[in-house]
Amino acid sequence: MPDKKYIRIQRLFDELERKLPSGVGRPVGWIRQPKARAARIPVGVLMVLGGVFSFLPVLGIWMLPFGLLLLAVDVPPLQGPVGSAVVNGRRKWSVWRRVRAARKAAKQP
Fold first, then answer.
1. Most distant CA pair in the chain: distance in Å?
2. Count of domains for the chain
3. Alpha-carbon distance 37 to 20, whole Å?
4. Residue stretches of the chain with pLDDT short of 50
5. Angle 41-7-97 (CA atoms, 0-180°, nearest 5)?
6. Backbone torsion region of residue 20, taken as left when φ is above 0, otherwise alpha when ψ lies between -120 and 50, otherwise beta
7. Rg (CA), the chain
8. Contacts of 51 (CB under 8 A, 6+ apart)
9. Which pLDDT tens digit goes with each residue over 78-104?
10. pLDDT at 1
11. Distance in angstroms (rounded) separating the CA atoms of residues 94 and 89
12. What's the pTM value of the predicted model, to 2 decimals?
């Protein structure tokens, strides 16, 4: 039976797939399958590198957490820290958006 950390990573991927358009969600679903391990690890490493170099055009900071999520599927020591970081990052993002919306609403007459 998979442990809690692995289940959390899979749940995060499920949420990600639901939020993505179907053209992008399908490849994400494919790369999560166990038979795609040979592709998942190099893609994860490339995504992390792309996230590190997000100051360059085309690359973005979004690549870093996605690459870490991909690597966490196959590297158990990453599952706990990556899962926690993604959950905490999402929580902080939603708080930041609420504060920003409240400030914007307060400025309007």
1. 57
2. 1
3. 22
4. none
5. 90
6. beta
7. 16
8. 59, 60, 61, 62, 63, 64, 65, 66, 67
9. 999 999 998 898 899 999 999 999 998
10. 63
11. 9
12. 0.77
